[in-house]
């Protein structure tokens, strides 16, 4: 490597440090900050984002990127590539466009809160039109700079290296069978005895203690992270300081518990990144798809399995001080509660069988919005029609329809597909892991996550961004990402009701 | 005003935002951060400090300071002056000196922890010598740039505008009478019945609830601040987000309670700064002396008074669910506990009568260390001799002597006098306030702090840095700072044991 490359490493280490500062301030905003500080904090964060942009787009960076020679080391080469990608994204857009987008999304977000509540699409149409118009400008400008189609340019922001041509065949395979599969699953479920609900109340301190116990059981290092409470659960924080949040309902502990397990999947990924590269672009976690695959692998693939439910049931009884003979607290019923399927309007409440339907609809529609094929005014009817086709439901109002999610009002187009790509990746990774290390699920049945975590560390976490998401999936599982492992998993768990699912 | 001045305002608003980010990250480090993140957080903070220095010393700032015309507005003029002062401090030192100082103090701090524990001055002598050598370089370089003596240059870092010539006569007046005064106070105290200790345990949640109640009673706005726990209590945070901390002892609630009242005094100052100037240098709180005067005015002057003890006693009984007839929980005994005098070795544990002795010693010795008149090797004997002269105590080891405080190992010379200047200022401000607004203390006797807070807001808080500390004291009290109000206060409260003290 040469001096220019080393200068870039120092430059990007500074950015990494700034990212940490922003990460902690964002966490603080959601968890700790007193309400009266909101406006000022927004200014503070905008200033830090501005600094980040300035540092990333400083003229010296372009010069250094021209001159840099990383040598033969795979990691350094990948690091330089990732620097180039970040720099290209940051310099693709004129300052006025960034500014206009920020303002438009801020306005639209505000309007969205009321519009969603009132199911009033007409109210958001003008501001959302403006957001869409600017997002298309961003997509075209970024695409031109990176040599990508506009939609691929948006995808690349969230999931470096993923292209529409990767997604289309996979989602087509999935969509083809989904309505029938859901029908079969529901029929099978209806022939089984109904799951017994668990009755509370479940005190928050006990739920919290359970969450902490489970986090650590999965491998979370409490000296390098925290568990707290926020309105919208997330996993954030900074390097060596991974902070996840949940929210508690005293009548039902399952949502908080599964939320903690989900966020712990994210956290374990961040905690497993290679220490030597933590302050470089190549040392960061892969894009949204890989990140979501790690949370869903834990939450959906593993922690809703019969194997885990068997270990979990007595722990739950102990956590809430329930006599061992109480009805409903056995492993079989717990498993049934954790795998109940119910088509519904709300994406974030969906089970793993019906969830992809929400994403398939969003993906198809956002491609059409970005290309201009779908006029924004026609979005509600198009959305409702597709939901009906996939889930058999009639959307009663736009608040429970196309307005339910904040993503598009926030300008996040190209983000939705990562959720389902993550679910498919989780299934394919787990299938491969269990084939390569057969003791993974027997160990889970004893509450031992070390074989699974060891495999994930080696095949996913430790690779960070040294390879692309498709390459990491290919190397770990022996094939490109497809929907077959996910479909096989749904088949075994929800149709065959197999003991090992 | 001209364009250059307006550019400076924008430039310094950015710095203010960066200060907020640093404030929250420092708070997080002391209160929230998991242990494994310590090293990384230190890097993050060093990076942000580096950015702050870069922004403050950017070549454009020097140009703008040359060209700026603030117009006739007093605040803008004072703002430009304060910008010039900050810029002069930041550009006075070559980068290598700043770097060397940072490294030397970091090393010395580490050595200090063990040396204090072992009372081993010899162990710290080499690293402390290096810190002193570099601090003297800093003092000479800064002094040259600002046209100040080396010691005044250090003072100016913590307390803009305060000079050794202001302090010397005041401290001389104080030192002259202190040993005799302490003797008289102790004699008087010995002739009174001993205070009855209150017996616990006092649960942390109850202590915390009491702290929150008292904070709000004093005027703390909970929508713009927080109360938390940390090893070393402090008041920090950011604009519109004032965060204070305390620590709890289940056997004695008084230290935590008085700590909260002290930090609330700091917090009320920050919360009372003029909103229009919050992101400018002129809108910041005055230096250390004024800040400490606000905490000591609340904690010492007001909250250890008979008036406040009368209101407090039944609140304490309610807070800890103590039957009203329990011995010791009456106002008179509470007041006696809050005003107990006991010469001791440890500065931070000292009462308001003996506290100045510790500062007088530090002040005299640090002046001699900076001037070179006192060789560092002679510090322990000089320190012990002065403590004996003022407090009549024989220091048993350097851990309880000159090594007890972290300030000098951290390179903080010129900081100690602000504590006692703050105590004297608190007394003089309170004397003036009560003369001008006679209902202040009768209101306090009913738990009503609004007349006092109103006076402080008008005469201190709202002035921010629009005038110097000496000017603010002069305007508020009609004279320069001296020791007379403090001495009169000690006389009335501890010698005469007056009802109104």
UniProtKB/TrEMBL annotation, chains A, B:
EC number: 3.4.17.19
The name this protein goes by in its record: Metal-dependent carboxypeptidase
Alphabetically ordered keywords of this record: Carboxypeptidase, Hydrolase, Metal-binding, Metalloprotease, Protease
Any one Pfam family match given in the protein's UniProt record, by short name: Peptidase_M32
UniProt family annotation: Belongs to the peptidase M32 family.
Keyword Metal-binding applies: yes
Keyword Hydrolase: yes
InterPro entries from the UniProt entry: Peptidase_M32_Taq (IPR001333)
Functional description taken from the UniProt entry: Broad specificity carboxypetidase that releases amino acids sequentially from the C-terminus, including neutral, aromatic, polar and basic residues.
Substrates-to-products reaction catalysed: Release of a C-terminal amino acid with broad specificity, except for -Pro
PROSITE patterns: PEPTIDASE_M32 (PS52034)
Domain of life: Bacteria
Organism whose genome encodes this protein: Acetobacter oryzifermentans
